[in-house]
Amino acid sequence: MTKPSCKVYGQVSITDNLVARFLTDDTSASASSRYVVFPGFCDVHVHFREPGFSYKETIASGSRSAAAGGYTAVCTMPNLNPVPDSVESIALQQHIIDRDACIHVYPYASITAEQRGETLVDMRGLAPHAIGFSDDGRGVQSESLMREAMLLAKSCGKMIVAHCEDNALLHGGYIHDGAYAAAHGHKGICSESEYGPIIRDLRLAEETGCAYHVCHISAAESVEAIRQAKKRGVNVTCETGPHYLVLDDSCMEEDGRFKMNPPLRSKRDREALLEGIYDGTIDMIATDHAPHSAEEKGRGLAGSSFGIVGLETAFPVLYTHLVKTGKIAMERLLDLMVYNPRKRFNIPLGDEFSVWDLSREVVVDPERFMSMGRATPFTGHHLYGECVMTVCDGKLVYENR
């Protein structure tokens, strides 16, 4: 994908009609210098919960949340009801997308029927309708089944997008098996439950030649395994989330908004993830936006559902903690949020952009979110960057006046 060489990092100049109208309405003397235009962000890992769980989120509310965060393209995970494991069920989801989404929404199909990890879906039949195949939320436990899935996906020209988790190593854990868990009497999730399946799948991807993408890596060993696989020429990419890059288990509180899967791990793991960002081992940043009801997130660390929301805080978090601090350049952040995900998943970048006021300091207030979800570990944080406008296919899909 060709990157535009534009002073304001975007596909459009500041004189674009929609942007110009906004600036004309802004009476401040420095209006034209306050705003920066970015190409539409792309998130390859979100949960919009519809069909089946619309009390948590809908395609309409999820896509509005994405637009408020500067995103114009997202890929939705298949843990729905019905699971998109057949042409008929994915068509039901696509109908809702076509009717209600304000941005581009690309659905995944599941790898296995009903995400049970027992029988593969009809990949050839589903391939024209899905951005890729994933059982996200559940790891494929069977090595032989994953090998067969990779061979089939390769024959269809599609990618396997894997949630890597070894159920045999979980032992009822729900936060990282580290210092915080030990100090507060919580059951921990060991890092091997993540990196063990990643190592297995990297071997299978190397054997089969399948295009393979690893979801939400959180452990130092995962970074190193992927780094070495890339050196061997394995066709692999990976993602991590904003929260794993700026938080660790020393930031935990006794609140369900700090519970996600995989969990916040140690400072060592966070530093390894940052090194993976610096050296290119980590290809993209995805939010794993996973809304739940207030009741589902109000049961403390042990009882709450896994998952946090992240579309509306992702860019401000990353800009504040990585760009403003000089850890990475803005161009690198755009590679992670725009160009790399679109290139890997073959998602086009059309007339799509967002306008940001980077001088604006905001305090994260979940009650102002467009998402129906409210659980975020960044509640009350002071961040820089406010999205003031998002345009998708030449249409204004979000405006913050």
Helix and strand topology:
Layout (H helix, E strand, L loop, with lengths): L16 H9 L5 H4 E5 L1 E6 L12 H10 L2 E6 L10 H14 L3 E4 L15 H4 L16 H14 L3 E3 L12 E2 L2 H6 L3 E2 L2 H17 L3 E3 L5 H12 L4 E5 L1 H5 L20 H13 L4 E2 L14 H4 L10 H10 L6 H16 L7 E11 L18 E11 L2 E5 L2
Parallel strand pairs: 2-3, 3-4, 5-8, 6-7, 8-9, 9-10
Antiparallel strand pairs: 1-11, 11-12, 12-13
Helix pairs in contact: 6-8, 8-9, 9-11
Plain-language structure description:
This protein has 401 residues and is of the alpha/beta class. It has one domain (41-351): TIM Barrel, CATH 3.20.20. It is built from 14 helices and 13 strands. The chain has helices spanning 17-25, 31-34, 59-68, 87-100, 123-126, 143-156, 179-184, 192-208, 220-231, 242-246, 267-279, 300-303, 314-323, 330-345, and strands spanning 35-39, 41-46, 71-76, 104-107, 160-162, 175-176, 188-189, 212-214, 236-240, 284-285, 353-363, 382-392, 395-399. It has a four-stranded antiparallel sheet with strand order 1-11-12-13. Helix 6 packs across helix 8 (192-208), helix 8 (192-208) runs parallel beside helix 9 (220-231) and helix 9 (220-231) runs parallel beside helix 11 (267-279). The two termini are 33 Å apart. Mean pLDDT is 94; it is low at 4-16.
Shape: globular
Report on the biggest sheet. Answer: 4 strands, antiparallel
Unreliable residue stretches: 4-16
State the separation between the terminal residues, measured CA to CA.
Answer: 33 Å
Helix content: 25-40%
Structural class: alpha/beta
Essential attributes:
401 residues; alpha/beta; TIM Barrel; four-stranded antiparallel beta sheet; 13 strands; globular
